[in-house]
Design brief:
The protein has 657 residues and is of the alpha+beta class. It is 42% helix and 17% strand. Strand 11, helix 13 and strand 12 (389-391) form a beta-alpha-beta unit. It is extended and about 100 Å long. It starts with a strand and ends with a helix. Residues 8-19 have a biased composition (Basic and acidic residues).
Length: 657
């Protein structure tokens, strides 16, 4: 098989996911390590000098089984990857087994010239050390996050007579209360705007506040009560501050109960102006509740959705504070080794919370169960100083948050994959891989879908330089072939499609992708040869032996040569994206056709049997099954059915064998 590299010769785009730590014990000989060995002695014992050819057998033969972290280096002394293990010997040995490694891990192992090990007292300690090293060294094969900024907070200067409520980011040096963290500055400013409107709390700086002789414009537009000139009493203003802080704590219902009571008291005292103010505050809070989807539950949680497709990953985080969603953020981390959502979630959570000073909520809700969940919980609990729980099986409102985060992750991933810049870069890589003179302008991909030969449908999806061109997508209902014959189905679909294009009913593509192996590619070559179309490049996309993404083989239609691309190749990611879209579109068409066929009555299509006679037959017999078991004489007893029509019905329902 020919190996063609893509145009990116730099180090791969990273990620963090290690081989399974729970695998069976390594068969390599090991040096026994007494429990009494000191960490310093073990760490000194396990250092391995770098060399261009790494001697894994010698290294593993004396590697400890204690927990710790390992750092992999290339021949230039640059760090490639940092990992943690509860059993260093088992974990590191798994990188050097002869079979079962995915392509990404093989790429990492091929670059290793040195491994250095640090033994720790526990796996939790190893996880914390691992994240510190990732943050400091940013190894290319670990998951990397670009957003290292601290979260914004809302600061209330409670030490003052007339406290201010302001935006805050950074160290918490001022005396007062801090509310947050919020997912973005926009979420903070939205909350500040609500409080300014509802509670009329000042947000000005101290220099501005202390030098006012008359109220500012905020007072004129009813966004501030004018504490700078002493219009509200300190007691009245403190009451508004207390309500504002209750709002930030998610206690909206309690606030509204208090305001309703104050409104009644003001009304009874004939103080209708104050009563109207309380009424407006209650109305505003009710509107806020509707807009922010306040749930019946309380508490703080981060909800993490994870979507993965065509070499890209999207993490969507929902931030729940005081029982309400206060915002969200989307991340597209670079990754290289992780494959499953469980591995990706574990790597993302570890770096997001342990590799930074971010505040950790007591509850993390994930789309799937993160790998090493217990270890993550222990490390997060140790870092936050309170118990932290990771869950993926949830009910009620929490289930709604989980579904919302996952839906957003999937939608954002699709948008990311379809972005013009992302698509263009992948087209450039494909041009280089296929050694084309120009960038492809148009590509088509075909796939076949059926259920054991039933309702066979072929799909054709079209991509141009901007991504999917859905207006040109086509379905082909396949007829007149042996059920399950994918070669014949592909031949028919291609013939129908390219006969029309040959007649000028559409544009010919630069590249024709076929989801399948050499048999399907042969059909494409034959069809285009019959139609005398020689300007289209045919490329088959054959799945690997275990049908995993990243193990596909390209089959060149002109020569039949097999080409393998690196798993992190942008060109391969583009081909996977188009292939997956063709597969999705084929399944959609097949399911629609199958559903329509199964809803169709066996009485339909019989000459002389229209809707009225079908109703009479069903009314007389009760079901189609009873009609199928009836004789010609019994069918003829229906008032609207003649002898001739009864014979036709019987013949249709009982075809000759």
């Amino acid at each position: 098989m020919n190996e063609i590299p893509d145009n990116d010769t730099n180090r791969p785009d990273l990620n963090r996911a290690e081989p399974d730590d729970s695998s069976s014990e390594s068969t390599s000989d090991s040096v026994a390590v007494d429990d009494g060995d000191s960490l310093a002695e073990l760490n000194k014992q396990d250092q391995q000098g770098g060399s261009s050819s790494f001697d894994s057998k010698s290294f593993l033969s004396r590697l400890t089984r204690r927990p710790g972290i390992y750092q992999m280096y290339n021949s230039s002394g640059e760090i490639l990857y940092v990992g943690k293990a509860k059993n260093l010997k088992n974990r590191v040995s798994s990188y050097f087994r002869s079979t079962g490694l995915n392509i990404k891990t093989q790429a990492l192992v091929s670059r290793i010239a040195d491994i250095q090990v640090t033994v720790t007292n526990s796996e939790t300690e190893a996880l914390l050390l691992e994240q510190n090293l990732i943050k400091t060294n940013r190894p290319p094969y670990n998951i990397l996050l670009r957003d290292d900024k601290s979260y914004p907070y809302i600061f209330v200067s409670t030490e003052q007579q007339y406290p201010a409520v302001r935006f805050h980011r950074g160290a918490k040096r001022q005396k007062g209360r801090y509310f947050g963290p919020f997912p973005s500055s926009g979420a903070v400013r939205d909350s500040l705007a609500i409080m300014q409107k509802v509670f009329r709390i000042r947000q000005c700086e101290e220099s501005f506040f202390k030098n006012r002789s008359r109220p500012c414009l905020q007072y004129q537009i009813k966004r501030c009560s004018g504490p700078c000139v002493g219009i509200p009493t300190p007691e009245a203003y403190q009451a508004d501050i207390r309500h504002a802080m209750m709002f930030l704590e998610g206690k909206n219902n309690t606030i509204m109960d208090e305001l309703a009571e104050q409104m009644d008291q003001a009304s009874q005292a004939l103080n209708f102006e104050d009563a109207a103010i309380y009424r407006d505050q209650i109305s505003s809070l009710q509107q806020v509740q509707e807009q922010q989807h306040v749930s019946g539950q309380s508490g703080d949680a981060d909800v993490i959705g994870c979507a993965q497709q065509s070499g890209a990953v999207c993490m969507h985080m929902l931030f729940v504070r005081g029982g309400r969603i206060i915002g969200s953020k989307v991340y597209h981390p670079k990754f290289s080794i992780e494959e499953t959502p469980e591995e990706l979630l574990a790597a993302f959570i570890a770096q997001w919370y342990l590799g930074s000073g971010r505040e950790i909520p007591p509850l993390l809700i994930t789309a799937a169960e993160a790998t090493d969940r217990e270890v993550l919980e222990a490390a997060l609990s140790e870092r936050s100083g309170r118990k932290v729980t990771l869950v993926h099986k949830v009910r009620s409102d929490k289930s709604g948050w989980q579904k919302l985060a996952q839906t957003n992750a999937e939608q954002n991933l699709q948008s990311h994959l379809a972005s013009k810049q992302n698509i263009y870069n992948r087209y450039l890589a494909l041009q280089d891989v296929l050694q084309l003179d120009t960038i492809p302008q148009r590509m088509e991909c075909f796939d076949i879908s059926h259920s054991s030969g039933e309702a066979t449908v072929a799909s054709c999806v079209v991509f141009d330089r901007n991504g999917p061109l859905k207006s040109d997508y086509r379905h082909f209902n396949i007829e007149g072939i042996t059920g399950g014959d994918d070669y014949a189905a592909m031949h028919q679909a291609l013939t129908r499609r390219y006969t029309r294009l040959k007649k000028g009913e559409g544009k010919l593509p630069d590249i024709l992708l076929i989801d399948g192996g050499k048999g399907q590619v042969t059909q494409a070559v034959e069809v285009l040869a019959e139609l005398q179309i020689d300007e289209v490049l045919i490329v088959g996309v054959a799945k690997g032996s275990d049908r995993k993404a990243g193990l596909e083989t390209l089959i060149m239609g002109d020569s039949g040569a097999e080409v393998a691309l690196r798993a992190d190749s942008p060109a391969l990611h583009l081909i996977q994206y188009i292939r997956d879209e063709a597969h999705r579109f084929a399944i959609t068409g097949h399911r629609a056709r199958r559903g329509k066929a199964r809803r169709k009555s066996s009485l339909e299509g019989i000459p002389g049997v229209g809707p009225k006679r079908r109703r009479e037959l069903l009314k007389h017999f009760g079901s189609v099954q009873s009609i199928e078991t009836a004789s010609i004489e019994e069918i003829g007893k229906v008032s609207t059915i003649s002898r001739k029509i009864a014979e036709d019905i019987y013949a249709t329902l009982h075809p000759d064998p």
